[in-house]
């Protein structure tokens, strides 16, 4: 997949013989509703020569400085998921650069003229243009006279709930990881660098890696989770604690994901490691001493192994 940044003109130049079918949206989480949009674009309908995604480089809520912004997927994670659908081109734009454009200018000048979009795919609730004045219906009205087709995807449901990034965030923050994963169509995951910790886990024979959640990230409910860790492309069973580690800190620390990778021995400091969350096991708890903490972790490890053996 080739990445094209509209603001820097990096990587490629779109030529006159290119006809793009572009999936439009922010795609935070790249959930099952997004999958319908991406799958349609990947099929290159309407004589398209290339499949594409038009999306933001940075989430609009972050650009607006909203303190309640909670991001499900980094841009790097989105790229991996876009590739899995067979998307040819990812087109990035900056929210600040287009938030003042009218719906007409965005559809005709940005999509049709600049991006060579001759077929667009969006969700039923897609909004665009200054003040979110444009809707999916508006997009049809603006692009159809130019000879471009628009495919509008209906709502997608999971267990009677309309799938949305907001609903998934809410489930994750309540610890309902299994339902969140059902709506995502893949495990909720973090992909972050491993940072130096206090190495207390090693003193009790349970070494861990530490990953600090950046600002604006969706943070799972504090507690212990059955997980899988991907290290250099290999998946390992793991146990993660999300929180502030009250047994070994005063609680006034950055929210951390501390993971013990079962039956793994390796040096991971400075590497980026993916942690996939599968099941909430128990809330975070302060133990009286390290020995009691170790006893509980060993029980958690057995529960995790049983979960993945099912």
Characterise the protein shown here.
The chain is an alpha/beta fold and 310 residues long. It has helices at residues 32-42, 60-63, 75-84, 95-98, 103-114, 136-143, 165-173, 177-184, 200-203, 290-309; strands spanning 2-5, 20-24, 50-56, 89-93, 117-123, 149-153, 157-158, 161-162, 188-193, 209-212, 223-231, 234-243, 256-261, 272-283. It has a six-stranded parallel beta sheet with strand order 1-4-3-2-5-6, with helices on both faces. Helix 6 (136-143) links the parallel strand 5 (117-123) and strand 6. The chain is elongated. The model has no long low-confidence stretch (mean pLDDT 90).
What are its keywords?
single chain; 310 residues; alpha/beta; six-stranded antiparallel sheet; 10 helices
């Amino acid at each position: 997949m080739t990445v094209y940044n509209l603001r820097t003109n990096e990587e490629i130049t779109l030529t006159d013989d290119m006809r793009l079918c572009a999936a439009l949206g922010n795609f935070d989480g790249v959930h099952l509703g997004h999958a319908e949009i991406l799958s349609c674009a990947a099929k290159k309908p309407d004589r398209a020569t290339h499949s594409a995604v038009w999306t933001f480089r940075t989430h609009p809520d972050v650009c607006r400085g909203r303190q309640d912004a909670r991001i499900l997927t980094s841009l790097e994670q989105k790229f991996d998921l876009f590739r899995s659908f067979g998307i040819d081109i990812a087109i990035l734009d900056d929210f600040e650069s287009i938030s003042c454009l009218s719906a007409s200018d965005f559809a005709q000048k940005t999509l049709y003229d600049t991006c060579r979009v001759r077929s667009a795919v969006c969700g039923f609730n897609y909004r665009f243009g200054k003040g979110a004045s444009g809707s999916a219906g508006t997009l049809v009205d603006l692009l159809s006279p130019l000879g471009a087709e628009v495919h509008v995807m209906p709502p997608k449901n999971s267990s009677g709930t309309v799938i949305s990034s907001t609903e998934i965030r809410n489930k994750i923050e309540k610890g309902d990881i299994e339902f969140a994963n059902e709506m995502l169509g893949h495990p909720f995951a973090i992909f972050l660098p491993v940072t130096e910790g206090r190495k207390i886990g090693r003193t009790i024979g349970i070494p861990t890696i530490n990953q600090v959640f950046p600002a604006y990230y969706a943070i799972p409910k504090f507690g212990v989770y059955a997980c899988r860790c991907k290290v250099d492309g290999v998946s390992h069973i793991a146990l993660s604690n999300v929180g502030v580690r009250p047994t070994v800190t005063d609680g006034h620390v950055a929210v951390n994901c501390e993971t013990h990778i079962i039956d793994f021995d390796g040096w991971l400091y400075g590497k980026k490691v993916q942690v996939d969350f599968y099941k909430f096991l128990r809330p975070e708890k302060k133990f009286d001493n390290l020995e009691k903490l170790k006893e509980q972790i060993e029980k958690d490890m057995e529960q995790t192994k049983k979960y993945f053996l099912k």
